[in-house]
């Protein structure tokens, strides 16, 4: 099934895509040194966790499975909540433990008030193909609103522009160029890592006179805790080495098909002899040639790599009196 009408998301929602997402999760886990959450996040202190754009929810389910928290009591609700704009890839409800729930919500819209400041950790991963550039600040604000004061945001991103092939073949270059062009045509950012980090760090906490924020001793809403680039290049994991090309090419192929489909629809509405139609027909021919080369394995002797930006930030805690235990607030006991 295709993405929901009106979405900017460029990939399908079907069983094959669910398999790709689950494989992507395992792949990302290896790239993250085997950590579901970065070591800078005090996992033992987390009581509630949200996973935004959760997809199949595999990250959330694995974290919940390893959690030391007891099952929620009646009326308290689940400890682990996954949000996504579509339920099509959620796991069956009957297979879920009592501490896990999935909720349909578009992160481009403000979350329901019952989720505001509810979570100790909010996880976001690989959503650059679903965020319009003009909406980035609004989306980041909506997501951070889920965090309790002092809560942690973990965000991992990569883009087509963060991937490269060696040797650099014409097929590889064309494929990445087409994907970037499609992102721009849809109003998406060709590279999200730097704008995302700037946006997270630009938000301000509503400090009144006499109030302070011991997380950063400023009016910054978020303090950067950790920033890292992890790469598939020379990665020691055999799983990463074996699967990195398939991970890049399966996503790139799906995105290229989406561009071809959109351009074919555009071409059908144009006069057959117009200059625009001729140019579009030639572009479609070249894109289909690139897709055919990929599917026939033209680059089987080459290698693909990509970088992932890993951001961890912590939300402000606003205090009226700095003389009342701000150290304990900033660094709770283990």
Summarize the structure.
It contains eight helices and eight strands, in the order αβαβββαββααβααβα. With about 325 residues, the protein is of the alpha/beta class. Strands 1, 2, 3, 4, 5, 6, 7 and 8 form an eight-stranded mixed β-sheet that branches.
Explain what this protein looks like in three dimensions.
With 334 residues, the protein is of the alpha/beta class. It has eight helices and eight strands; from the N terminus they run αβαβββαββααβααβα. Strands 1, 2, 3, 4, 5, 6, 7 and 8 form an eight-stranded mixed β-sheet that branches. α2 (58-65) links the parallel β1 (49-52) and β2. α1 packs across α6. The relative contact order is 0.15. Mean pLDDT is 88; it is low at 1-6.
Mean pLDDT: 88
State the total count of DSSP E strands: 8
Question: Into which percentage range does the β-strand content fall?
Answer: 15-25%
Low-pLDDT regions: 1-6
- From the spread of the alpha carbons, the general shape counts as globular
What would you report as the Rg, rounded to the nearest angstrom? Answer: 22 Å
Mind describing the biggest β-sheet?
8 strands, mixed
End-to-end distance? 46 Å
**Given the structure, what is the number of helices?**
8
Oligomer: single chain
Structural class: alpha/beta
Helix share, percent: 25-40%
Q: How do the helices and strands follow one another from N- to C-terminus?
A: HEHEEEHEEHHEHHEH
